[in-house]
Amino acid sequence: MAKIDAFFKLMNEQGASDLHLVSGQAPALRIRGEIERIKYKELDNDSLRGMLYEIAPEEKIKVFEETGDVDFGYEIPGLARYRANFFSQKYGVAAVFREIPATILTSEQLGLPPVISKLASLPRGLVLVTGPTGSGKSTTLAAIIDEANKTRKDHILTIEDPVEFVHQSHSCIVNHREVGLHTRTFTSALRGALREDPDIILVGEMRDLETISLAIEAASTGHLVFGTLHTSSAPKTVDRVIEVFPSSEQEQIRSTLSDGLRAVIAQVLFKRIDKKGRCCALEILIATPAVRNLIREGKTHQLPSMLQTGKKYGMQLLDDAVMELYNKGWISGEEAYAKANDKGKFRPLLKSPPTDFTDA
Fold first, then answer.
1. Whole-structure pTM value
2. Is the pLDDT of residue 356 over 80?
3. Residues with Cβ within 8 Å of residue 321, at least 6 apart in sequence
4. Are residues 127 and 263 in contact, defined by beta-carbon separation less than 8 angstroms?
5. What is the pLDDT at residue 355?
6. 122: buried, middle or exposed (CB in 10 Å: 19+, 13-18, 0-12)?
7. What's the rounded Cα separation, in Å, for the pair 105 and 147?
């Protein structure tokens, strides 16, 4: 057993999402969204480096020493998988580990709206799941992929950095490819994917123009493509995808995206106040003909009104979902205000509303 495994067991026992190991500091856990120190000695650079290198593949150590940071997956059988990131900082090495549960929860178990599981049955198109780091994007996507794996007879191909949730093949064939281990880049993996007879492609992160372009192309040529972006709302996601391209190509991309897009899910995690744990608020945009028309004509500023009027299709605004969580007594007014898009709507919930300098 590796020396570091004791921290992972503690992490699991405490229900932590992340483990932070930093040279010159005591270890820390992120529990329910907040950093909490572990009662342990400060880690010195040499002992921490030895601890980290014990579990890292040799090629990943080489990349880390050459570049100063690296990602990879680590698994403790019977406990969990971990997404590892090593990085260099002023006082030496540091690492953050995100726990990826061994059990994949269904959409119903996660409390997601019914329309989310329906996305697994789409024949083709592009579905984007967005939100800040640590907002549960991977968990939502895992639930959708799991639904497809159990109900379809297709080939599912995931391209991730690193592989997070591991799906055993059920009715589908599932292949996982890790960037840096099984393929060089997201772009090269996506190019190869079009020759590997996939029906469903999961792109772990749409980071650059070429990856986004290939994902849109795959969605437009009969594949169902799921991808993630770091954006805070559905309309901003559409704008982000279009703005990645040079201005001379944006009109063509609007047309292609409007044809291929099927849904955008923007999500935020909240700490619950009624019990231990966290809950999720979703903004859901379904690409109806009217939504596609707005994207094609460059009128994405009108998408929020479509979100408000499209409830019969399963659409909802993030702020409406946040207000629903508040009304249920699951989250505090302060947390709702902090993470809402339209903060003015939530100011009356606060006992002493702050002066928000960002509104100045």
1. 0.89
2. no
3. 281, 282, 283
4. yes
5. 67
6. middle
7. 10
